[in-house]
Protein: Activator of Hsp90 ATPase
Amino acid sequence: MVVVNPKNWHWVERNTVGWTNEYFKTQFIPLSYNNEKYIIELVSVDDIKGDSNVSQRKGKVICYFDLQLNFFAKITSKDNNDETIQFKVNIPEFMHDENDFLIEFLDLDKDGECYKVVVNEFKPVFLGKILNYQQDLINFHSKDVQE
Structure:
């Protein structure tokens, strides 16, 4: 009998970029937020670039990722359903060791009421959801790297 990786001592690594693409498409589309005046929702994943891996060494499961995420979103006025504003949500650097990262809301008037609602109300909902990614990644792939 040959023991290939006794007690999970040796480094084992899995590329999880494919899973990451599917994760953001299924977990974030649609992600919506309603307040008294607007419905804000992510409509699609525009682009995901970067690296995502789950590894284990000496029996400990870890993950590391460095992603650039781009989403399309829209705001619909509850008073006038014909009034829809489209915008982009961009995260230039989403990394495994940071909880405080830049989230950009592009193509919105920064002085407008919609921008304030997006930043003050939608952003915390979005941030809470995106911070689940790391634990979901580890939970889903931990058995793949342990023997």
Summary: The chain has a mean pLDDT of 89. The helical segments are 17-28, 113-130, 133-145. The CA atoms of residues 10 and 28 lie 35 Å apart.
